[in-house]
Design goal:
The structure holds two protein chains of two kinds. Chain A is elongated and about 50 Å long. The two termini of chain A are 14 Å apart. Chain A is mainly alpha-helical. Chain A has one domain. Chain B is built from seven helices and five strands, in the order H-H-E-H-E-H-E-H-E-H-E-H. Chain B has a five-stranded parallel sheet with strand order 1-5-4-2-3, sandwiched between helices. The chains are: A mainly alpha, B alpha/beta. Chains A and B meet through helix 2, helix 3 and helix 4 of A and helix 1 of B.
């Protein structure tokens, strides 16, 4: 049980660092991130929605990244990160299928972009990590109740 | 049922807070994003129109997709002739960290600010019949195409402009010579 909670804590810490950093780097250059959102051609016909995503998503990532470190909120934050990353994976697969040339801008425009395959697998790892946090939290809750 | 409801309420609260904070930060920024998104190409076109106000040399913008793309081998052949001016369309900071030898900087983001410096060299190269070859970060990066379209709008003939498609990422991964400022 202790090992399980230890691994869960490490996963929470890693996810927090990744998502807080990703949010901050996007927030520093919101126009670049808005251009990246537009390039995916999912909401490119709805200009206000592009701005909404470009302004709100980085803050959502930062809040969720901080909240996952707080025991009371870690379960809900982990579930949110699972849905968020599943959304990213779906978006990236759709982009690959449609053969659109984009960079993921996962960490804003500051870093060299990885190929979409690498980004998809990285997001799968994040889903598994968040999934493990959920598993550990539910298991711990059950052992406390039962 | 209650934990599910709690989860949805919590997520909705975080989403509303994110929107409020995101728009609040944007409102406080000097370079705030417009509430209705304007594409990078349109922004550049509008900046150039303002820049050219009253000058007769302006031409209609072309779509970045109409600019000829070249590979590294074609780039090498072009450089070997000596009749080329290489233009780096990445942000100025990246240019200063490292760029292709003999390249000049004309970033898409600060096109109008950099044009008074880069413009005379580009005009000189165009008049000499040289090719203007632009590059940016990699094959996904649209900036070289936008700057190329901007140069056409500024009066450069489209036939003399090409984009080195794989750009900086390929140049660096091939271990080619890099110049830092």
């Amino acid at each position: 049980m202790k090992i399980c909670l230890g691994i869960s804590w490490l996963c929470r810490l890693a996810l927090a660092v990744v998502f807080v950093a990703a949010g901050i780097f996007k927030l520093l250059e919101p126009q670049d991130f808005a251009d990246a959102v537009h390039a995916f051609q999912i909401v490119s016909g709805v200009p206000w929605l592009i701005t909404l995503i470009a302004l709100a998503l980085p803050v959502f990532e930062i809040i969720t990244g901080i909240a996952i470190l707080i025991p009371r909120w870690s379960l809900f934050s982990s579930v949110n990160l699972i849905f968020l990353n599943l959304g990213f994976i779906g978006l990236l697969i759709a982009t690959k299928v449609r053969d659109i040339s984009v960079s993921c801008s996962c960490f804003g425009s500051f870093f060299k972009t990885d190929s979409l395959d690498v980004v998809i697998w990285r997001d799968v790892v994040f889903v598994l990590m968040a999934g493990f946090v959920v598993f550990a939290a539910l298991r711990s809750h059950r052992s406390l109740v039962g | 049922m209650r934990p599910t409801l709690n989860y949805f309420c919590w997520t909705a609260a975080i989403a509303i807070l994110s929107i409020a904070v995101g728009y609040g930060i944007n409102a406080a920024r000097p370079d705030s994003v417009p509430l209705s998104y304007v594409s990078a190409g349109t922004r550049l076109t509008e900046e150039i129109v303002q820049f050219l106000a009253g000058e007769p040399s302006g031409q209609p913008a072309v779509a970045p997709g109409h600019i000829t793309r070249i590979s590294l081998q074609q780039f090498d052949s072009l450089v070997a002739t000596g009749d080329v001016l290489v233009v780096d369309a990445r942000p100025d900071l990246f240019f200063r960290f490292g760029h292709i030898p003999d390249a000049i900087s004309l970033p898409r983001k600060d096109f109008v600010e950099h044009y008074p410096t880069a413009g005379p060299r580009i005009d000189q190269a165009v008049q000499a019949g040289h090719t203007i070859c632009l590059y940016c970060a990699d094959e996904h990066c649209p900036d070289a195409g936008y700057v190329a379209a901007g140069l056409v709008q500024m009066g450069a003939p489209i036939q003399q402009i090409v984009v080195y498609e794989n750009g900086w990422a390929e140049w660096e991964s091939e271990g080619r010579q890099v110049i830092s400022e």
